[in-house]
Amino acid sequence: MSTPPSTLDRPAAATARDPDSEPESEPAEPAPRPFTDRLTRLPRGLLGLLRPENAPLEMQILGRTLLHAALVGLGAGLIGAAFFAGLEYMQWFLLEYLCGYSPLRAHGERFIPGEISGSFRPWLLVFLPALGGLAAGLIMRMAPETRGGGGDAMIDAFHHSSGVIRRRVMWVKALASLFTLGTGGAGGREGPTMQIGGALGSAVGRALRVIAQERRVLMVAGVAAGISAVFRTPLGAAILAVEVLYRDDFEAEALIPAILGSVIAYSVVISIFGESTLFARAPRYPFIPRHLPLYGLLAVMVALLATVFVGTLRRVHSLSNKLPGPAWIRPGLGGLALGLMAVPLIVYLSGRLAGDGKGLGIFGGGYGAAQMAITGADWLPTGWAGVEILLFLCGVKILAASLTIGTGGSAGDFAPSLVMGALFGGAFGRAAQLILHDPTIDPGAFALVGMGAFYGGIAHVPVSALILVSELAGSYDLLVPLMLAEGIAFVALRKRQLYSAQVPLRKDSPAHRADVDIDVLRSVQVATVVVRNRAWLTFELATPTHELAHTAAQSTWQDIFPVVDELGNLKGIITSDRLRSTRDVEAFTIAADVMQPVVSVRTHDNLRIAAERMLASGLRELLVLDETGKTIGFLDEAEISRAFLEATGKR
Per-residue pLDDT tens for 318-365? Predict the structure, then answer.
């Protein structure tokens, strides 16, 4: 008696039913099953998602994906450096040289040395943002998805377009942002580089012809690299890129590529411009436990302020869409409204505080205003007058950013969010110091915490915002207050979103819908779908093969047949395919010669396990055993299909 052949030794007829192969003609089965046959075609596609080549990246992510992410990081670093330098020179020429306007800048924001010369020309400054907005609007006609901040468009591309962003977005977004921000638009450069970096990652993925999953990962790596290139926060940028896609989740598979891309982009930028944190700060912020209630109160008030900002931004966007005329003129109208509002305020306040033509953080990203809230300024009054100025500038920044971004200007909402939080936090810290007469209260600490709580709460990125603020200041002294404030703001702003394209969880993303649908099989036990009420055929080890074929032909549903010994113990199985392949030798063989090892599931197993075993063995049916190893029924592909459709239908 020969040794039972293994599944690896199955003849061609037994392996011809590969789920991914073209259908081939087969000998007619004794009893056709037209309905079941049609139904079982479905699970071959569904269960095919469980194959290794369609599984999550796992080890692939440690190989070629990291090399691709490194390439994306290098490209994003060079593009980010060029964008940063181009924007600086454009602002210097248009705002400083032509208009005589001196932007308020943060400690590590500027790399062009020297002071401006020439008189302040407010009449030119009024119209400059409008001209820049019109130019940007014309350019954005070639890629309408570049309008606005860029964060929403990037998130939407990840979830709904398999990580595909058109190549033209890179240069259209860059040029439109240069004209918007270079002429004084009240937005940040991080939002545009977020979309530019994502477009670069998508382009690299398509050029290398990677699968959709890897392309999405490369897109996220590009986002991280783009933020890191202009923000110089390698860890915070990487965490932000994987966290900003969801409201309550993050893209774990993209974390390591995002870190690598971010590190390389950061290295490229500091090799060109040098290493420096964006904000100067106090030498140290000591942790004082009794101040924690103040930080908690600050977080609640910052959440209210963030709600006002998002509401204002949405309102301006809605009104802008109702304006007559083509969409490309709206950024110009927003720039004109910005100039008419901001220039009179600058003329009035700078003449009394900082000198003619001195910026107050209204135009541009406003990081200089945040720096002022952190470390103060020689011209900023002390006492309640300083509190009033910071609050006033915070309100003006809300309107200025809404006019630029809400009308479709190519400027990020990232920077204004940080600046608003810093201005309000600085005012809160100064007010608390005056009311409580506590010299240990440092308004700069409250400015930094307010900065993180504002953006972390409204963008639903508490972890990355915490790290970003610490990297921007070059200190983790405020880790505990930031953790408290971020948590409170995150909970308080659950129903408010800066990025409407965010989805709650991975399972809600179309990018992961197939994975989630297959995972519903884990929630269904074999015991709930096993077929128990049908009689089945069983063969003994010594049954002649010709008798097997004759008896099996009488079955109208059974595809596998258990083989037992004299005591009824299960020893193997025989499939219909195996019987058809042994017709030439059926006169010389018995059941023990043609049987194969048992492939089965237990009643407590779930359908995911059953599906994986079907695919691994190439079977269309499985035996179902109880705890003692006794056969109690069968599980067919059709039952798995029905359970799958019922479960997903309910969801």
Answer: 999 999 889 999 999 999 999 999 999 988 887 677 666 577 888 988
The residue extents of the domains of the chain are: 7-30+524-650, 70-97+123-512
489: left (phi over 0), alpha (psi -120 to 50) or beta: alpha
Helical residues (DSSP H) of 553-625, grouped into ranges: 576-581, 591-594, 607-617
Whole-angstrom distance, CA of residue 347 vs CA of residue 498: 32
Bridge-based pairing of strands 631-636 and 560-564 is unpaired
Order of all β-strands in the sheet with 570-575: 539-540, 560-564, 570-575
Q: How far apart are CA 360 and CA 369, in angstroms?
A: 6
Task: Quickly state the pLDDT bin for 485 (edges 50, 70, 90).
Answer: very high
Burial class for 45, CB neighbours closer than 10 Å (0-12, 13-18, 19+): exposed
CB 304: neighbour CB atoms within 10 A? 11
Write the CATH number of the domain with boundaries 7-30+524-650: 3.10.580.10
Residue 162 in this model has a pLDDT that exceeds 60 = yes
- Residue 114, pLDDT score: 55
Q: Does 243 score more than 70 pLDDT?
A: yes
d(CA 594, CA 82): 70
Q: Which residues sit opposite 574 in a β-bridge?
A: 561
Q: Whose structure tokens read 């924001």?
A: 109
Q: Are residues 126 and 337 in contact, defined by beta-carbon separation less than 8 angstroms?
A: no
For residue 602, the surrounding DSSP H or E stretch is: strand 600-602
For the record, the structure tokens of 639 come out as 């039952």
Tokens of 34: 């037209």
| Helix (H/G/I), strand (E/B), else coil: 554 | coil
User: Are both 7-30+524-650 and 70-97+123-512 of the same fold?
Assistant: no
Average pLDDT of the chain is: 84
Q: Are 608 and 614 in contact (CB under 8 A)?
A: no
Query: 147 is written with which tokens?
Result: 């309008």
H-helix segments, 92-189: 122-140, 151-160, 168-182
Lowest mean pLDDT among 1-10, 278-287, 336-345, 603-612: 1-10
Residue from 254, 222, 70 nearest 150 by CA: 222
Architecture of domain 70-97+123-512: Orthogonal Bundle (1.10)
